Amino acid sequence: MPFHEPVDAALVPRFAGHSTFMRLPALSDPSGLDVAILGIPWDGGTTNRPGARHGPREVRNQSSLMRRVHHVTGIAPYERLRVADLGDLAVQPIDLMAALAQIESGIAAICAAGARPLSVGGDHLTTLPVLRAIHKAGRGPLGLVQFDAHSDTNDSYFGGNRYTHGTPFRRAIEEGILDPRRMVQIGIRGSIYAADEHQWAQDQGIRIIYIEEFARRGADQISAEIRMLMGDAPCYVTFDIDSIDPAMAPGTGTPEIGGLTTREAQALVRGLSGLNIAGADVVEVSPPFDIGGITALTGATMLFELLCVLAETR
Ligand code: MN
Ligand code: MN
Question: Ligand 2 mean position to 13 CA, how many Å?
């Protein structure tokens, strides 16, 4: 199978042509791909401001600004990986449990073809069925590198609802998909429901790096710690756009001030170089709350950063 290259912006302007992730070919069959980029336009797990269902379309649009080569590492991902835009999973928006099953089966098809998923949400609950599919494909238990303002390890919301975008990683631990001792959460901040809200997560062994600790220690030290925690075993990288400060990424459902800068987030993702990454995602981009596409552009750029570290995974 050939390597796919983005449409050459010297021949076709970035604002012209069909909108696909990174201006890659749109394929419906993942066979032969190393990485399948896809959208999961579903936000049925959202507890507050909705709109992440519109994320994939706008991230596709803004991703037309991505070029071919990483300016720091020199990585040209399309020369190392066969990558294409697999389109969106057509997830119905009404029945939550049915939606989770649809997402899982969509990702299972990608795993069965031997490709790794790089998805764009959607709210953070979309990551749970993605993890289920990767785990069932025999790549687990997984470590997790989670960029987020929130731990997303609460037990339930609104009287016993156990599936929301505030609960996916608790469910994934309970289901034996994630190894909590190989989980790290970076950028955690904001007011919490109770003083002991993060206790369950910490009791499981999750390493929570609050934004204050990150500010003290910096990206190099934190990245070294993450690499040590993950080791050589498979891990998944999930990037909640609300890890970034809402001054730079306002288009999201649950903003928290005092977050990572875009530059810090880029440095942290680059710091994942060499890890055994089984898949990755960018979630919680909500275009209705965005301004001038800045959040979708940030999402698209983090998607490119993730693709470049996927290209370094052996
Ligand atoms: Mn989250
Ligand atoms: Mn969050």
Answer: 35
